[in-house]
Design a protein that fits this description.
- There is one protein chain.
- By secondary structure, this protein is mainly α.
- The chain is built from six helices and no strands.
Amino acid sequence: MNSVVPETTVQFEKDAMEMVFSIAGSRQIGLEIDKPAQQVCDFLSYHIARQPQDLLAHVQRIKLAARHGLEDYLRGGLTDLFIVLGKRGAALRKLMLAQAQAQEVLPEEQLALFRDKLETGFTATSVIADPGVSVLS
């Protein structure tokens, strides 16, 4: 049987492959990539689900989501960071929350929820009303 792969599928796979190599090899905190921000956030979310201790990927996803106004991804990124750090890493939580707040993407009630958990973080079983695009909750 001769099957032809649609051109759109080939292009999608090519784009995905380029993203894997450009992001996975990047040690930059602020990603500068020529792909749609939501697509990059999806890739980073998938990566974090597989390697939750990769703090650089968490920071990259949060900064990218904040810079591009992706509220659900920003909320999910902060949620996942607060979960993976647990009671450790209060300074990193504070820094990422301050950057998220500066971009004015999240509503005040969401920011207040994160501020309340700056010292303790979340656990994977914490009840979070709307975790956004979280992969660890």
